[in-house]
Design goal:
Two copies of one chain form a homodimer. Chain A is of the alpha+beta class. Chain A is built from eight helices and eight strands; from the N terminus they run αββββββαββαααααα. In chain A, the strands form two sheets. Chain A has a four-stranded antiparallel sheet with strand order 1-8-3-6. In chain A, strands 2-7-4-5 form a four-stranded antiparallel sheet. In chain A, a hairpin with a 5-residue loop joins β4 and β5. The longest helix of chain A has 25 residues. The relative contact order of chain A is 0.16. The mean pLDDT of chain A is 94.
Chain lengths: 190, 190
């Protein structure tokens, strides 16, 4: 919990002492490796702050293959935000890539939390602006870069992450086959 | 200005009477068709609320071709949000597709506005959550759909928009050549 409080005070003007009561609104949950946080097709009424660990967001392609579209590491929020916002059915699943500790905030509890502490909108404003800004850059990169350049760009920007995530998930995220990814890796090592 | 006030009251719990002073923080600017709102390479210190008209967000590919990655119509906010947040250099340009009236908020004025009326964070929290949620769905669709299905999906979801935007911009956005787009259109009419 302290980790989230630190994160909020770092990214907003809210004083730490105002944040003491927020623990009551969250549920701390530990997910084993490969355990789901959210399942496609189920009602999505929670968002997750990753305190420790790593999760991936994916959907099931028509051919039954899981397509990873995003990851979340420590200090990132994740959910199917369209479904979360509308209280609708999730179009994505989220699963722990490694043992993950998450602070879980339900939509109902969030409403109460924001009513009690409206200053938190400032923090969420910045978090979503940042996430949206990153997605603008990501969309630019998917137009602009070849698959190989996309891999190089990713390696440069997130070296620690590359070590943590299984190759088949990284390949899925980058839109590669695992074989193609292994080819590129060999090339860039040599 | 009334349009923005209506939009804020529709998407937050802020009372309209609290919003009267906000006009002072904005600049109303009219852009002629094809006039730029923001240029790649320049410092980005403004965000734009489209009151009337339509703009597109694009960048210059290495081969000199303009790649459109997004549009904004009435009641949408647009900017290069990474650059806006960091006060950095824009990696995108924004240009009016048709005569456009925009409410312009500079980063400096936004800071003053939010200090005077912190309740506005609630509105921006929701706006960015919505924009980020839409970009999650968009990323899913670019993985999932063929180019032709992407076009059909777009036509179904934004029919009015399809009528307003020049074909070559739509083709660029969808990652088509104009020739390919014209082929698909013929096919879907017949």
């Amino acid at each position: 919990m302290q980790q989230l409080i630190d994160h909020i005070t770092r990214h907003s003007s809210i004083k730490p002492e105002k944040l003491e009561p927020i623990a009551d609104f969250f549920e701390v949950r530990t997910f084993k490796k490969k355990e789901p946080l959210l399942l496609e097709g189920q009602r999505c009424h929670e968002k997750f702050f990753v305190a420790k660990g790593c999760v991936h967001l994916y959907y099931l392609r028509r051919n039954g293959v899981e397509q990873t579209i995003d990851f979340a590491l420590e200090n990132w929020w994740t959910s199917d935000f369209m479904a979360f916002q509308q209280g609708g059915v999730a179009q994505f699943s989220i699963r722990a890539v490694e043992t993950t500790e998450a602070l879980v905030l339900s939509a109902a509890r969030q409403q109460e939390l924001l009513a009690a502490l409206p200053e938190l909108h400032e923090y969420f404003h910045l978090m979503f602006q940042r996430a949206y800004a990153a997605s603008q850059m990501r969309i630019r990169k998917t137009y602009e870069l070849s698959k190989e350049d996309l891999y190089q760009d990713f390696s440069r920007n997130y070296p620690a992450f590359m070590q943590r995530v299984p190759q088949y998930l990284l390949a899925s995220f980058l839109g590669f086959t695992p074989e193609y990814l292994s080819e590129i890796r060999k090339k860039s090592v040599s």
